[in-house]
Amino acid sequence: MTYCVGLKLNEGLVLLSDTRTNAGLDNISTYRKMFFFEKPGERIITIMTAGSLSVTQTTIARLQEAIDLPEADETTSIMRAQTMLQVATIIGNTLNRTRREIVEQCRELNQQASASMIVGGQRAGGEMRLFLIYPEGNFIEATEDTPFLQIGEHKYGKPILDRVVRPDTSLDDAQKAALLSMDSTLRSNLSVGMPLDLAVIRKDDCRVSHRRIAEGDPAFMAMSAAWSAALRDSFVKVTI
């Protein structure tokens, strides 16, 4: 399992993913689930993945292959698409086609394969957008009413996002909210694990700032401890 969250704010995007892949109690591995396609100053596209590793890895590989083809154009390459909507459409079609092929290959074994993705970014001169792409290839978009999207094991980290994240939330506060959302998930579900990948994309910059947060990171541990203490203090003060 995994947990990925993306926040779309007036100032830009904040994206966070874990790296744990669980294929059973005795088969736990670390795989990157955040991928960047970037031409600094011209466009930045970030993809986060959840679900079957065979589906997500093959989809990412096919997207990269389409970019590298000499005949690539705006209908096949996410690095040539004219809008983020076209980017989401290309990714959705590729994800759906890949999923269908792998499901067919696994049919005799009676195995299922599914995956979902969060896609965010901006093209110079265009609008910054954030999409959640379903296994079937269709998608929804973050809005002012719902400025964040989640995939994977999302239920533990949703309450804090519901309470604090608004379009006018600053990028610094949004990073804190995303990390605390992840901290709640890490505490409640062993199928989500560190290290974490945190990315920030400032509006109209068309470039990404990325940070890898390893197990035992002092800043993350201090934030987690402070949040736990604050919750305990608030709990004591509440009356019924």
TrEMBL record:
Domain of life, source organism: Bacteria
Protein name: Peptidase
Entry-linked InterPro entries: Ntn_hydrolases_N, Proteasome_sua/b, UCP009120_prtse
GO terms under cellular component: proteasome core complex
GO biological process: proteolysis involved in protein catabolic process
SUPFAM superfamilies from the UniProt entry: N-terminal nucleophile aminohydrolases (Ntn hydrolases)
Pfam families in the cross-refs: Proteasome (PF00227)
Coiled coil region boundaries: none
